[in-house]
Design brief:
heterodimer, A: 5-stranded mixed beta sheet, 5 strands, about 40% helix, B: 5-stranded antiparallel beta sheet, 8 helices, elongated
């Protein structure tokens, strides 16, 4: 797994690629909590290039969403890959995240 | 076709990738498609993680045994440990709330296993806990079904017909009905998956031959796939192997049809003006 973080106007964009699994979920969680610790209240996680996510990875997503919502912030999932989307759907997690279909929808966050 | 493979490995987080790789190979050997292979990978990941985290305590390193039974269109994965018995099926599914403070995503791994596998059975006996997972190829019937004829359109225009059990007088009307229904789909190609057929009468053979004749006159394909040894012997004795295309597996039959479709598509493409 690899994460690249870019600060944007009004939100952080965390681009993730590869596998979010038992070997990488801790790093994934740290990347997200790092953005929260910097005071970011909108985190966009680009999941387009994620080929695999297990429940440990999902828990990191939920933990981040919980943290941010305490401060009225929000976690957005950008363009989840087919595999990620399937896992979000069967676990029911799709209902608790705001999912953005493409980068065009990011413009609304900058306003 | 049944083949069994086993992996015995220390129940440690660092071994999860090896466990997943082992199951991936077995799932591919069972002819599961890419999505189904992914379902097996993720379910085994979750099951093995549970064993490592819950069956064996902190610092305790037991063993995990992964046993795969590969059949022609299904995979049985048994994951065993000798740690604390824990029936994952006893855990309720997680409940999500619009109020984020109430979200308790425990049990996510188990939800994944239950949704992605066709069957999940847990057993604990004589100190050995076993989680048995079964994944079937899409449209494949359960192993318990011993008689009947199933028909399944695997993609538009490609129908797989699976005669199960004995194709003798009682079953031949159903066989012929399924074949006719498939032939009636315009331009369809047929695969007759013989992997679970145990016997075929001369009447049954005539029905297959008639269907093949009708299709080939129309330039359409009918392929027999995965005949068990006994059935293959019958087909060879009467020379059917000279007439029919017989593929070793359903997968090979399906790819033959795909190749044929592609060949037709490119043949029918209009020639552009510039090439003249």
């Amino acid at each position: 797994m690899e994460t690249r973080i870019a600060g944007r106007e009004g939100y952080s964009l965390v681009r993730v690629s590869g596998r979010i699994d038992s070997e990488s979920y801790t790093d994934f969680g740290l990347a997200l909590s790092g953005e929260y610790d910097r005071g970011m209240l909108a985190i966009v996680i680009d999941l387009a290039d994620v080929s695999y996510i297990n429940s440990a990875g999902l828990r990191e997503l939920v933990t981040a969403a919980k943290l941010l919502r305490q401060d009225d912030g929000e976690v957005y999932l950008l363009a989840p890959s087919k595999r990620v989307m399937e896992v979000l759907e069967i676990t029911g997690l799709v209902a608790i995240f705001t999912i953005l279909n493409d980068e065009g929808e990011l413009e609304d966050l900058s306003r | 076709m049944t083949e069994t493979r086993e992996l015995r490995i220390k129940a440690a987080r660092r071994n999860i990738p090896r466990i997943i790789a082992f199951v991936t190979e077995a799932a591919e050997a069972a002819g599961l498609n890419e999505d189904e292979v992914f379902h097996c990978q993720l379910s085994v990941d979750e099951a093995a993680t549970n064993v490592i985290e819950h069956a064996y305590g902190e610092g305790e390193e037991g063993q995990i045994v992964v046993n795969c039974v590969i059949r022609s269109a299904s995979l049985i994965i048994k994951i065993s440990d000798q740690g604390q018995p824990f029936d994952p099926m006893s855990i309720p599914e997680p409940v999500f709330s619009a109020d984020p403070a109430e979200m308790e995503p425990g049990g996510l791994g188990l939800t994944i296993i239950r949704r992605m596998m066709d069957e999940v059975v847990y057993e604990s006996e004589d100190g050995v806990n076993t989680l048995k997972l079964i994944k079937r190829r899409a449209g494949m019937p359960p192993e318990e079904l011993t008689q009947g004829v199933l028909s399944h359109q695997v993609r538009p225009g490609t129908v797989v017909i699976m005669p199960i059990g004995r194709m003798s007088s009682g079953a031949t009307p159903e066989l012929s009905e399924r074949l006719n229904a498939a032939i009636a789909i315009p331009d369809s190609a047929l695969v007759i998956d013989l992997s679970r057929m145990s016997y075929i009468s001369s009447r049954g053979l005539k029905i297959l031959l008639a269907a093949w004749r009708e299709l080939s006159l129309a330039g359409r394909l009918m392929i027999l796939s995965a005949p068990p040894l006994r059935i293959r012997a019958i087909l060879e004795t009467i020379g059917f192997n000279q007439v029919f295309t017989i593929a070793d597996s359903l997968d090979k039959a399906l790819s033959l049809i795909e190749t044929d479709d592609n060949a037709r598509d490119s043949a029918s493409e209009p020639v552009t003006g510039e090439e003249r």
